[in-house]
Amino acid sequence: MKWSQAYIPTLRDVPQDAEIPSHQLMLRAGLIQKLASGLYSFLPLGLRVLHKVENIIREELNQRGAQELLMPILQPRQIWEKSGRWDVVGDLAMKTQSREEKEFILGPTHEEIVTDLVSKSLKSYKNLPINLYQIQVKFRDEIRPRFGVMRAKEFVMKDGYSFDASEEGADKNFDLMHDAYNAIFTRCGLNYKSIEADTGVMGGSKSQEFTALADAGEDGVVECDGCGYAANLELAIRKPQELNGNSSDSTELKKVPTPGKKKVKDVTAFFKTEATSLIKTLIYEVDTKPVAVLVRGDQELSEVKLRRVLDATDVVLASEETIQKVTGAPVGFAGPVGLDSIPLVADLSIQGMTGAITGGNAPDSHYQGVDLERDCKIKQYEDLSTVVENDLCVHCGKALKIRRGIEVGHVFKLGTKYSKSLGALFLDEKGKENPAIMGCYGIGVSRTVAAIIEQNFDEGGIVWPMAVAPFQVVITIVNIKNKSQLQAGEKLYKELTDAGYDVLLDDRNERPGPKFKDADLIGIPVRVTIGKHIEEGNVELKKRSESDFSLIPIKDVLKSLV
Amino acid sequence: MKWSQAYIPTLRDVPQDAEIPSHQLMLRAGLIQKLASGLYSFLPLGLRVLHKVENIIREELNQRGAQELLMPILQPRQIWEKSGRWDVVGDLAMKTQSREEKEFILGPTHEEIVTDLVSKSLKSYKNLPINLYQIQVKFRDEIRPRFGVMRAKEFVMKDGYSFDASEEGADKNFDLMHDAYNAIFTRCGLNYKSIEADTGVMGGSKSQEFTALADAGEDGVVECDGCGYAANLELAIRKPQELNGNSSDSTELKKVPTPGKKKVKDVTAFFKTEATSLIKTLIYEVDTKPVAVLVRGDQELSEVKLRRVLDATDVVLASEETIQKVTGAPVGFAGPVGLDSIPLVADLSIQGMTGAITGGNAPDSHYQGVDLERDCKIKQYEDLSTVVENDLCVHCGKALKIRRGIEVGHVFKLGTKYSKSLGALFLDEKGKENPAIMGCYGIGVSRTVAAIIEQNFDEGGIVWPMAVAPFQVVITIVNIKNKSQLQAGEKLYKELTDAGYDVLLDDRNERPGPKFKDADLIGIPVRVTIGKHIEEGNVELKKRSESDFSLIPIKDVLKSLV
Questions:
Q1: Residues B196, B285 share a domain
Q2: Is residue A241 part of a domain?
Q3: Which of A33, B42, B304, B559 could make an S-S bridge to A70, C-beta 3.0–4.6 Å?
Q4: Would an 8 Å CB–CB cutoff place A113 in contact with chain B?
């Protein structure tokens, strides 16, 4: 394509609301444009990249027997009622109505629809396995859309679903899709990890996330350099620690007035001690019932772990009213002593703790000298707190590292939740009716584009990997008024295009400086500059990822690309 | 792909609610599946066809300099308010809200969004022309979704928009896109017409529809075999006719009691005359103001012509209350005599009519002997009625034919309505600010798939044109337990696939009869049958469109396809 005719509206300035590099660069390089909060248009250059990623996905999935289809975006309420998700889908789902006053969800995911679809033709184990996927725009009414296409209201997903007659078959499809995802993200040029992930409210068993490592990532990734263990921070586990609560000298239970001291740092300052001597008591509503959760003052509770341990669907911090009602104190003064009306669940790190400081279950008061065994009725001790840097690996004992990542894919063994509720049943070899065993597999396609940029940029702009670059080569004509430069450029353009390369010919009537800057900004992997050396038949060849260029005969450009 | 592993859930029976061949065949052949009224999934076989049509569209548009982008489906209310369409978009648009209680339309079309998008980078005439398109799911809350994907709530459209600095430029883009559409529909194998069409409420000037001729079509197409004139029935014109109202003998104006005679056939029976002696008086609300519209008893009013003639936005039949108020009579007895409170507009076919029968503007009464000149105050005579078969061509005088068609495409010169209201302005060579001149161009992509089927089927199923067939060749192995048949089939499959053909290998453990029937149903253009003749190295080659087959050496199959 000729740049003079291409719609590439680059921006000189970084837009104000763009916080992370990929968001800034996608806007500046004319890959996307903002319509409204969380809503972006993919401009021609951005769409080229999106299509390249989509085609990599298609190739790898088709090769493994998955078949593409396209389901409606509008999903009838009644189907979500069958799966039981209509009531729990919550505010993240966008909804609409038709003129018959029928309600629809704008597809955030398609488990219900694909299961209903398969149920209509599924009869026998002979019809299985089935592995279907689609590439489609999805909707999520994000509380805080941000980071451009990374967390948008409308975004492109690949969602896939497998149906099997046996656990072995389901595992095989799971492994096959895991393998496909490795191939896909590798081809996209991503530095990623496949990590253990939450099975969430989907009710599945196996769950692996594909996370692109990037400072701008919203997810924490726990990694062990020793044995390769990797997991999402929300559920990563570590070696149970020795008790290291700094018990205070006094083990006598004593109530102390602590007016206004609600935060950990205020309480530790008041008692002149460390956060490790404190026990935080968090009142949660677990499937609407209040539960007190205890963690050490220096640690963070993982709600994902809490949900898994309690086998709950919904885990939210209790309201101020509930806290007041349950503890008899305002927020900030809850404690385990005498809190007998609700279950107490505690993190392993405080098991056996004595001489601890806790809330007093009364306004402006704390206990000191708490002995958990002696003074409290704790129902169970569990691993509930989030791993921190240098905790020890449960598998090999080495110190764990914590990095940031962007979730770009997720493979998930779903089980029979949806096939049971939506009737995707088959007759087995003995004539017995069984629900199909399902897996589901997602890739955030538009997010993957952003993740690639997060890993491939410099101060000049994007540095696309060859496989996903919108154009692989840019031919920059230094002076389009010079006939031999222009003609040589057009001839080379034809030669490379005919050889199958995506080429952008910069034939704009601009000075070379801005042309080079634009080519760098939009990140084309190879730049061929046609300037004064063309008189000797030579051109400059420069890789976007390198600072040096070489002078080569124009006739050698094609073979230098291979 | 191997049929044994393909997801092609064919149906034996015609689904009850499928009325037309394409709908029946798309369901039976496993191309689509119904989710709910007006909502269909494209199954793998159907999606292959959809993608082939999409790629033909892309190739033809890209070649002409149009550039693909992807805009959001969610369109903020405020942008539709700027163009003035929020209030007039009506019930056909589906809407949703986000958590901030912001309202959105689910994109039925993207004039507002693309104009807003272009306005953000457009500065000078040097940025023009711009020609952008997208291929995307659109939404319409159809009153009566029917005919499968032909009239669905959710459907795939190609919508394109051009921006130019001059009328000449806009005309050039219009012609270029018209040319692209001819290439696209020709490559899709469609028998279609480019016909003159309504410019509608979009406020444009030039407008051509691309209509695939088919009995199941919802649109009327008027055609002249003499000179090639072709237009949408709604606005087709014909040679002004000689007055042929069968005036009754009496020209004396007389009021006659006609209790309960409301319909044309009852009134003509009562007066023992023909419908051509009657004048129908229809009360319309034209942009909310009542207007009486007169047509001859045997003719139909074209609301499109009425809207154009009166330069109105909105033309709807008046309510019973309005009719009663304006005419002093209930529905069925309106007439032009004495109807002085509202404007009267009449069809050309009644100009000069005398001795006519009209409503009496009183309950249960008619006038006879009406002389329009003498008795009524008609404001204007216009061409308002719909052409009927054998009306004469305005250009060459030959008899016009009326056929049925399916609108598959529309090219439209929009003008400056959107660029003005949404600020897509540019500075011209003299530094003066002007709105860009726009065109818009649509193709119903999923509808095109259905239209192709309407023109290409027989009693056995679909007969795909090669260019859009989901697979071009099916290799049917008569007996998969016969090793030489199976091996020959797999070898040929590899040979044809390597040569770039989309091949389906029917390796199912079925009898040949059902295999042939399935291959015919899904309409694969070429069938290669590998049976007993393989022992002599021969196979049967049969085209889906022909009934005969030939026996050829298996080594000649590839070259016979070219």
A1: no
A2: no
A3: B42
A4: yes
Question: What's the pLDDT band for A244 if we cut at 50, 70, 90?
Answer: low
How many Å apart are CA A42 and CA A24, to the nearest integer?
A: 14
- pLDDT at residue A13 in the model: 87
C-alpha to C-alpha distance for A472 and A463, rounded to whole angstroms: 11
Q: Which residues of B touch A67 (CB under 8 A)?
A: 6-7, 44
Q: Per-residue pLDDT tens for B195-217?
A: 988 876 555 678 999 999 999 99
pLDDT at A521: 98
ipTM of the complex: 0.92
pTM metric for this prediction = 0.92
Structural contact between residues B283 and B327, judged by C-beta atoms closer than 8 angstroms: yes
Domain extent, residue B79, equals 50-220+402-448
More confident residue, A252 or B550: B550
Distances (CA, A) of B299 to A22, A287, B277, B314, B327: 64, 68, 11, 22, 22
Q: Which token pair is A528?
A: 């061929």
Cα–Cα distance list, B298 to A144, B100, B382 (Å): 62, 56, 17
Of B36, B70, B141, the CB nearest to A76: B36
In chain B, what residues touch A154 (CB-CB under 8 Å)?
A: 72-74
pLDDT of res. B247? 56
CB contact at 8 A, A198 and A205: no
Is the separation of the CB atoms in B207 and B243 below 8 Å? no
CB A391 within 8 A of CB A226: no
Nearest CA in chain B to A31: B69
Distance from CA of A206 to the nearest CA of B (A): 26
Query: Are the beta carbons of A132 and B73 separated by less than 8 Å?
Result: no
CA–CA gap between residue A111 and residue B556 (Å, rounded): 47
**Which residue of chain A is at minimal alpha-carbon distance from B1?**
A65
B487 contacts: CB under 8 Å, gap ≥ 6: none
Residues whose CB falls within 8 Å of the CB of residue B371, separated by 6 or more in sequence, listed in order: B251, B253, B353, B354, B355, B356
> CATH number, domain at B125?
3.30.930.10
A266 and A348: one domain?
yes
The tally of CA atoms less than 13 A away on the side-chain side of residue A487 is: 6
Q: What is the CATH number of the domain that holds A554?
A: 3.40.50.800
Distance CA A60, CA A55 (A): 9
* pLDDT at residue B390, rounded to an integer: 92
pLDDT at A308 over 90: no
- Show the low-confidence residues of chain B (pLDDT under 50): none
